[in-house]
Amino acid sequence: MARQTITVNEPNDRWMKQKVQENEYASKSELINDLIRHQREQEEERIWLRNELIKGEESGLSQKSMAEILEEAKRRARKA
Question: Where are the alpha helices (DSSP H) in 1-65?
């Protein structure tokens, strides 16, 4: 595991200490890693959504009814 040194401002340090004291995290390192993990997941979701929107725009207009589109979306969701 890579070792890093970071500097945080006082309000952030107090917040991190509070989370550790409340036993939400075992250490500040665990908290920082969790924050980074969540940020990475959000970034991946944004990239996926952006790509899906681009695909949708590039596919053009649909001739399907709203009911057909909804049924197809439900079918795809069940497969996932």
Answer: 10-21, 28-59
